[in-house]
Amino acid sequence: MNIDSTIISGYQSLQDIGYLLSGKHQVLLVSDKNIIGLPPVQSVITQLKTAGCQVTVIDNVPPEPSQHDVSAILSALKQPRVDLVIGVGGGSVLDVAKLLSLLCAGDENVTLKSLLAGEKPQHRTTSLLIPTTAGTGSEATPNAILAIPEKETKVGIITPVMLPDYVALVPELTTSMPARIAASTGIDALCHLFECFTSVIANPVSDNVALAGMKKLFANIDTAVAEPGNLVARLNMLWASYYGGASIAHAGTHLVHAMSYPLGGKYHIPHGVANAILLAPCMAFVRPSAVSKFACAYDLIPDADLKLSEEGKSYALVEYFDALVHRLDLPVKLSQLNITPDDIPYLSQGAIEVQRLIKNVPMPVDKNQIEEIYRSIR
Ligand SMILES: NC(=O)c1ccc[n+]([C@@H]2O[C@H](COP(=O)([O-])OP(=O)(O)OC[C@H]3O[C@@H](n4cnc5c(N)ncnc54)[C@H](O)[C@@H]3O)[C@@H](O)[C@H]2O)c1
Ligand SMILES: [Zn+2]
């Protein structure tokens, strides 16, 4: 199994990807309606056709896809076995492309049902993932997240086999992202980096990856959101997001992500927006258990006050998170999302059930404490 992706990065780096295509006849290009018309995507399709590939285009992956969306896409495929899957889009598209790289590899025993039941296939088709948000870092994680409407939650299908052969980080593909999506997906990347950095299963590899990513993110997130055409800031955010995904691959997120799952699963709040509301309050809760790591991350902020004590820096980081979410004009209260205090017991039960992530929180946490955090942002 190859889990080391080759990364192509930079302006116009998709202009000549012909060398990836040799021997590929059936290609599945997975995208969505906001992305498919972008010139670099059309250029990829032209190159595929010029190389003689049969290209099937899926351009209807919805945001926050469910298991039923993937089933519908599979049933509509005339050619269920392919040689290359290309995913170009946000995390929603990339997660679907990753699943299709398993489901279109020619093994009839591998089905969406078997993957949801925990099967870990050994093979997938060749894959190229091209993120257009920055982001989920899905191109660097072993995860694909699906909504399960019947259970009003989301689940992760997790296997390193889904890590792609090729990743392309192409800044001009992200310039059409509306500011609100650039802001919320940027906060998602920050959550991946900082949760993995403070997770109980952090290790030296995930720590260094997270530090490199946070340095890029703190220096670029404001500019990237304010100046969509700034390709340098946009490329740096793509790298920060990639590092966030790589941190997940080596460690794992915890409280913010556990508490955001029920907001996505039942109330359909976009993933990055749900994380943005939770970032500062969850980190205020976690702070006492990881003071030196909080201080270490704070030191990476461009105008950090390096004279503060470790304790002082740890508080200052939580304040920075809170100010950043306000500055990016993202929601900070559940009421802004039409979620009422009556919903909080349900949300808390949903969060505590995400034991896969709760067990990574660097201190004990129970349902009452989770409920208190939700109440603090009602
Ligand atoms: N696999 C993982 O490791 C992982 C990690 C975190 C989140 N996720 C999942 O990823 C999904 C969220 O992905 P996301 O936050 O990237 O958002 P998204 O993919 O759902 O996209 C949000 C919206 O932005 C639009 N968009 C994306 N890029 C654009 C661009 N360049 N220009 C114009 N519009 C653009 C999309 O069309 C969509 O309407 C959720 O399902 C979440 O659970 C997966
Ligand atoms: Zn996330």
From TrEMBL:
Residues 6-169 form the Alcohol dehydrogenase iron-type/glycerol dehydrogenase GldA domain. It comes from the Bacteria. CDD domains: Fe-ADH. Keywords: Oxidoreductase. Residues 183-376 form the Fe-containing alcohol dehydrogenase-like C-terminal domain. Transmembrane segments: none annotated. It holds the Pfam family ADH_Fe_C. InterPro entries: ADH_Fe/GldA (IPR001670), ADH_Fe_C (IPR056798), Alcohol_dehydrogenase_Fe (IPR039697). Belongs to the iron-containing alcohol dehydrogenase family. This is Iron-containing alcohol dehydrogenase. The lineage of its organism: Bacteria, Pseudomonadati, Pseudomonadota, Gammaproteobacteria, Enterobacterales.
